[in-house]
Design a protein that fits this description.
440 residues, alpha/beta
């Protein structure tokens, strides 16, 4: 029996995931407008046999306190669908996953775009389904208030079902293209959806042929009660944030258990927590790398980042005193609860908390030599905490190069990671089944 192997995504972010990483002397500071930089990033990840590039997105500038806004390096970035479409021509095997919002977009256009990306890339597309929790995004789409969370999740369920149904508009062999008879397609193998629901009315069919992998892969990142349930019902990859193995195990068991209740095989969903890794040949060198990054963090930016995540303005509070009592954060509750929990058994100062959070934005972090990092990853993978990881290099290109050149060989030596791609499509490499058409 083949030994299970972990799956790896690369969380694409222009300059890296450490909030001050762009300031590092070896960082690509102009990454947000430098397409060749993204080509190098994608090719390095493919050389490292990563399963996918994962590009998150939102429809608003990242907001921060006035004292910090000029220090934020990702207030503007390339639109990810266009970026990944371009990168498909520079890669052969790695998956291409990006965000489209169920709150601000329409099912037909999303279905059409991602089906096209799947055709262009030869079956490597994935859709990251988000409900857009940032209230400021709504201000760019009219004067209506941001919909409540429960409504956004109801809309997301229907939206996702419509998109998946549209992806089944054509059978695999619907297009005959017979020049002798003049018959281009078989009408009996075209399916009209004619959907009428609470939020959407969509006639169909989709004017894009069926995907090379049946359907693009569905990715989701919600950690709330509603997010876990919709993941169990529809997702095939879940990106999540945990700062401890215990939290990750509890999430993993919960979502996989919900899948069973939904009648879905547990192996049809890959759970990939975010992981920030600073790796070097020795632990001492890795510690020095990490300290150099932390030293670049400006207090204004650290507090602004923390304020945004907890949904409360902390910019007027003393840096060297404990975190004040916080109101409930109804927008980003899971991350806010994580930050608050850090003060339960101790009284860390505001400076200590933002410093901890800024390095990986609430994801688990490893700083060490390759064997040390691999030990921790192996424990998570083999004890029910994950199916792999979504990697968050602290800055580019060095952080990604270090992971591929130092850590991937160690994981391969242990039999925990592939030595070659298993297939050509994202589904084949993730070990996910090709969906059977609902009309079959």
């Amino acid at each position: 029996m083949t030994k299970p192997q972990m799956k790896l995504g690369l969380f694409v972010r222009p300059c890296g995931h450490h909030i001050a990483g762009w300031r590092h002397p070896d960082a690509q500071a102009d990454a947000g407008v430098n397409f060749p930089h993204f080509v190098d990033m994608a090719r390095t990840a493919e050389r490292g046999l990563f399963d996918m590039l994962f590009s998150a997105d939102s429809h608003t500038v990242w907001t921060a306190a006035e004292s910090a806004i000029e220090r934020v390096h990702y207030v503007a970035w390339m639109e990810p669908y266009t970026l990944l479409s371009a990168l498909s021509g520079f890669t052969k095997n790695i998956g291409l996953v990006c965000t489209a919002s169920t709150t601000f977009e329409q099912p037909y256009s999303v279905a059409r775009r991602f089906a096209t990306l799947d055709l262009v890339s030869g079956g490597r597309a994935g859709w990251n389904v988000v409900t857009s929790g940032n209230e400021t995004e709504a201000l760019n789409f009219g004067d209506q208030p941001h919909a409540p969370k429960i409504e956004r999740y109801r809309r997301a369920r229907e939206f996702t079902e419509v998109v998946r149904a549209l992806w089944d508009s054509w059978d695999d062999d619907a297009f005959l293209r017979d020049k002798t008879t003049g018959v281009f397609s078989d009408r009996s193998k075209m399916h009209v959806l004619d959907h009428h629901g609470e939020f959407y009315h969509v006639k169909g069919p989709l004017n894009v042929p069926r995907s090379p992998q049946g359907q693009p892969v569905i990715v989701q990142a919600g950690a709330s009660e509603e997010g876990r349930q919709i993941a169990a019902e529809t997702a095939e990859v879940v990106f999540t944030a945990h700062d401890s193995i215990g939290s990750a195990r509890a999430f993993y068991a919960d979502v996989k258990g919900r899948m069973t209740a939904c009648g879905r095989p547990r192996e049809n969903l890959k759970i990939l927590p975010g992981l920030s890794v600073v790796v070097a040949p020795t632990k001492e060198e890795a510690d020095a790398k990490f300290r150099a990054l932390q030293d670049l963090l400006h207090p204004d930016l650290g507090v602004a980042l923390l304020s945004r995540r907890v949904g409360f303005d902390l910019t007027k509070y003393p840096l060297d005193e404990p975190l004040p009592p916080l109101p409930e954060n109804v927008v980003v509750s899971s991350r806010s609860e994580m930050i608050t929990s850090w003060s339960q058994n101790a009284k860390p100062t505001l400076r200590e908390i933002y410093t901890r959070f800024a390095s990986s934005r609430g994801h688990f972090s490893i700083v060490g030599a390759p064997a040390q990092a691999a030990d921790i990853m192996e424990e998570w993978f083999t004890t029910g905490a994950c199916d792999g990881f979504n990697i968050l290099p602290p800055f580019y290109p060095v952080g990604l190069n270090d992971f591929v050149d130092l850590l991937v060989p160690e994981l391969q030596r242990r039999g925990l990671f592939r030595s070659a791609y298993e297939g050509r499509t994202l589904r084949e490499n993730l070990g996910l089944p090709k969906p059977v058409s609902r009309y079959a």
